Amino acid sequence: MIALPARWRSLGTWLAAQWRRAVAAARRDGRALAAIDYAELDINSAGSWPVVVRRAAIAVVFLISLLVGYGLLVAPQSERQASAVNAEAALLDRYARLAFQAANLTTYREQMAALNTSLAELLAQLPGDAEVPALLEEITLLANGSGLAVESLTLQDERQAAFYTELPIALKVTGGYHDFGNFVAGLAALPRIVTLHDFSVVAASDGSLTLTIEALTYRYQRAVDGGVAE
């Protein structure tokens, strides 16, 4: 067991004595306050009240002052401090994100350049207005080269999307099953982007097959003066 210095033991003894005196005084004051007839007290002659009542009134006023002071001064300061702490945390988080972006700025620029290159390559595969007739002719030649007979090949009405225009092509060809496979593979290998949708195959009595399909190609809409133009 650790032995305390003599001065600390004396201080502890004095504090214990003071606490006992305070408790005894509070008990005496409590008994005295319970014996007082408060109906006889006049607020205008508060100076002549019994000492115990004046001490109690001073204590009540002191506590009320503490509560009012906390509500008017301390609480708003605490709220402002909490708000400042939250703002500091938000600024530190924003600083960390900006610092990370700055540290990786070169990488971001390289990625952006690569994306721009990929976009340019994809846009180069989209036909312009003057290239659509040539694309239709290319599809016809591909069908004939695959052993298919082209019954109809019609460019439908354009369909507008957010950043591009769809150019539907209604296609109907006749031939054999394997010819269809060669034709579809040839469409996928075209230098222009062509996608196939809504196809159906019907068999004729002579054993030939008729393929009806919608092919889609696309035209990019370039922004002009804040709007979008083809």
Question: Tags for this entry?
Answer:
rod-shaped, alpha+beta, two-stranded antiparallel ribbon, 2 domains, single chain, 56% helix
Overview of this structure, please?
A hairpin with a 5-residue loop joins β4 and β5. The chain folds into two domains: 7-30 and 45-103, no CATH class; 127-229, 2-Layer Sandwich (Alpha-Beta Plaits). The strands form two sheets. Strands 1, 2, 3, 4 and 5 form a five-stranded antiparallel sheet that branches. Strands 6-7 form a two-stranded antiparallel sheet. With 230 residues, it is α+β, with helices and mostly antiparallel strands. The protein is 56% helix and 21% strand.
Provide a short characterization of the protein structure.
This protein has 230 residues and is an alpha+beta fold. It is 56% helix and 21% strand. The longest helix is centred in the middle third of the chain and has 53 residues, at 51-103.
SS-based class: alpha+beta
Low-confidence stretches: 224-230
Number of strands: 7
Assigned CATH class of the largest domain: Alpha Beta
CATH architectural label of the largest domain? 2-Layer Sandwich
Count of helical regions: 5
Rg over CA atoms: 46 Å
Helix fraction by DSSP (H/I, runs of at least 4): 55-70%
Number of domains: 2
User: In the CATH hierarchy, what is the superfamily of the largest domain?
Assistant: Ribosomal protein S6/Translation elongation factor EF1B
The CATH topology of the largest domain corresponds to: Alpha-Beta Plaits
Mean pLDDT: 80
Q: What's the story with the biggest beta sheet?
A: 5 strands, antiparallel
User: End-to-end span in angstroms?
Assistant: 92 Å
Order of helices and strands: HHHHEEEHEEEE
Question: β content, as a range?
Answer: 15-25%
